[in-house]
Write a structure and sequence with these properties.
The protein is α/β, with parallel strands linked by helices. Helices cover about 40% and strands about 15% of the residues.
């Protein structure tokens, strides 16, 4: 099967990748209407789901997806559209709705194509129901496969903290389809990578984001820890102390916020670096054309 693969163009790309729960929204997406609608207490729902996972040596994300379907039986059908309708109720952090266009526009002024991605353990169908769903180049999140009646019959995708990193490599190589295994594993010379890891920003809030943060950080990119503006900084302090993030900021997406200024500074740095990198690639190509090999 042929998959669409994005090639490197003349305009450098900066990929901004977001966790979702407690990064773009103050809480768990399932706890903003869905869990309540099945008559469950939020804390008890997660406690029982996690215990089920532990007792069955099961991935906790698979366990909560099963719990969602089982708890809804006899109350309503869990369909794609129903999940999207719950997604529409998700509260976003202050300024999030205007953030994406503003940051993309700033990048365009600096000669940088900014792309936004979600990499989340939450439910893809719920994220697709939010007001900002159309702002993302791709949403990577846990999702269901549906039968002919529109009911979930199996997980289509589950994303946990360790397998999140594969999506950074997909973005790097322009192989965005999750089934394009050949493309994501092929060797591409560093100068031909569509979005080198140095041109990635990962924004997250907790330990589940550590593998992505570590990968981006160690590759010259930018990992940012965010925290609830009305909450504690303990998590981001710990992430910073363990060299998981380079910066931290309140999850405030309004213009002029610390997060806004950080992203704009990163875009400025990317623009300057890519101008120098283009000179390096030019010299590299001239050297090769002269019969020398690096």
């Amino acid at each position: 099967m042929q998959y669409e693969r994005l090639e490197k163009g003349k305009t450098p790309v900066l990929a901004v990748c977001y966790d979702f729960d407690r990064t773009l929204t103050p809480g768990d997406m399932q706890a903003q209407g869905f869990i309540q609608s099945v008559g469950a207490d939020v804390n008890e729902f997660w406690k029982q789901s996690n215990e089920f996972a532990i007792n069955n040596d099961m991935d906790m994300n698979l366990a909560y997806m099963l719990a969602m379907v089982k708890r809804a039986r006899g109350k309503f059908y869990v369909t794609r559209e129903a999940l999207k309708s719950y997604g529409a109720k998700i509260k976003l952090y202050e300024g999030a709705e205007g953030w994406f266009d503003r940051i993309t526009g700033y990048g365009r002024q600096r000669g940088i194509a900014v792309e936004h991605y979600v990499i989340s353990s939450g439910i893809k169908e719920m994220i697709e129901g939010t007001a900002v769903a159309g702002k993302f180049r791709k949403i990577y999140a846990s999702s269901f496969a549906y039968d002919e009646y529109g009911a979930p019959e199996w997980p289509a995708q589950t994303i946990n903290y360790t397998n999140k990193t594969q999506f950074l490599f997909r973005i790097e190589k322009g192989c965005l389809d999750i089934n394009d295994h050949e493309g994501v594993n092929r060797y591409i010379p560093p100068e031909k990578l569509r979005v080198p890891l140095r041109n990635m920003v990962y924004i997250g809030d907790s330990d589940t984001d550590i593998p992505c943060m570590k990968l981006v950080n160690s590759s010259g990119g930018h990992a940012i820890g965010v925290y609830d503006p009305e909450g504690s900084k303990d998590k981001v302090y710990r992430l910073m102390a363990n060299n998981r993030i380079r910066y931290y900021a309140p999850a405030d997406y309004r213009e002029g916020s610390r997060l806004d200024l950080l992203l704009k500074a990163i875009i400025d740095k990317t623009a300057a670096y890519e101008r120098l990198e283009s000179e390096h690639v030019r010299d590299l190509e001239q050297m090769r054309s002269a019969g020398y090999d690096d």
